[in-house]
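Appendix B. Chain record.
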Amino acid sequence: MLEFKEDLKGGPAYKARLVAQGFSQIPGIDFGCTFAPVAKSASIWVISAHATANDWELDCFNAKRAFLWGKLQEDIYMHQPPGFECLSPDRSHLVAHLLSSLYRLKQAAYNWYELL
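Structure tokens predicted for this chain:
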């Protein structure tokens, strides 16, 4: 996925991230469990009030990149991204064996939650 953003001088800055084709995954074969981390607003209010009453500091983290930390338990293979293909000595196309989660994998959130 390629994004265009402005840099500090107002010019275009290109940002890219590797995204898997999670829509092609088959339940029970490519992944077992999924997870959707959701926080209720009432829980956030209670934690905030409790922290304020005890003069605690609240900290947050970037959950967008946290999904990349999860280790895959299944064997997942993917085609190499266009422009970055490597060929074997006999000139056939190679595939990548994933060891960690990528964006849009069905099990990425669950693997992150297990790690947490």
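Further analysis of this model is presented in Appendix C.
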